[in-house]
Amino acid sequence: MNITRNNVDALNAIVTIELAKEDYQGNVDTVLSNYKKNANVPGFRKGAVPMSLILKQYGKSVLFEEVNKMLQEKLNNYLVDEKLDILGNPLPVMSENFDWDADVLKFDFELGLAPEFTVDLEGKTKVTKFNIVADEAMLDEQVEYIQKQYGKLVSKEAVEETSELVGTFTNEEEGINKDVTIAVADFRTKTNQKKFLNKKVGDQVTVNTKGLFEDDHKLMDVLGIDHDQVHGLEVDVVFTINEINESEKAELNQELFDKLFGQDVVTSVEQLKEKIKEDAEKQFASQADQKFLNDVFESLLETTSFELPATFLKKWLMTAGETPMTAEQAAEEYEKSEKGLRYQLIEGKVMTQYELQLTFEDIKAYTTKLIKEQLAQFGQTEPDDKTVEDIVARVMSNQDEVRRISEQAMNEKMLALFTDKVKANVKEVSYKDFVKEMYGE
Length: 441
Fold this sequence. Notes:
Alpha-Beta Plaits; single chain; five-stranded antiparallel beta sheet; 14 helices; 3 domains; Chitinase A, domain 3; alpha+beta; elongated; 51% helix
């Protein structure tokens, strides 16, 4: 057997495997001998079928199978031994006049090679690292939300702007008959809101579905209809008022503070806001960190230049899936997936260039940290070691969970690396301003 490689260019190569008869004939003979022992052919006793008949019936198919198995094994070993970093899978070069009876069988395989490049984390970037703070306006909103959440509903005689209504939406032609609880403020326009003011239990209000709420998803939920029905729906619906309630806010007193945080942990509105601020900014930090990670990679995608074996990859895509693609379909799929491939290559290069590795102990330690954090959320701030170890063992027996946790642990390592190396502009923003930065709204 002989294996050689011809590097066509920096991104493409041809690997040639030559198999002499003595390389594969022993395997072929063994398989055919087993066929002969077990073959049931009319007119012959089991095991007494002539080899010539076995060869005629099975010879070519066994030869193809055994040669193919040997090719796969030798090619895979060669790629490992040569430490070749390839994209996609090797593609056999098809030959119309291949001679399976030749003394030496010669097979060519096309390879798409991963490009050589480096990443520069310390160069100039336009990346911003956000520090999200819970401003006073947000803290006031959260305090009010807590008051409403722990408040109580008080029945009212007539509808006011702040009322919450329990009733039924109906439209016989559209098959709408849905009991709902809805606030007057949920209706998008003041015109529709005013239609409900001063109404009483038993009254009916007719509104049109067009522009009734901020979006069609809200309309779907309220009317109990599906996506196809809601699209372009413009009909009158009747709302029958069954209850009129008003949310009475809970008082900001020690009873509420103890209910939220435990006995005497918080004793004032100022301390309540400090707690809300602390918890909120922890959650904000993880969102800001994720955006920072994403933005660094986007910056690297823009500034890290390398070529890909595009022609090879398009050819590989034509046969890679369960359903073969045409050349046009493969080209379209390549355009869709090219950015993702570049992202993966850059991510892999960051790991190798900066020697970011995860050991089993790293994953186990990270899992332990996650479990302790989750238990703390349920009030178990000091769980015993045996409880934690048992949960960690169960989690790590699930391959999908291990994969997910490994990604989180590697992201944490990358975040630490980027924070240390990347020259980012640090910007302090409120959460509302951060959302605008994220979504442009």
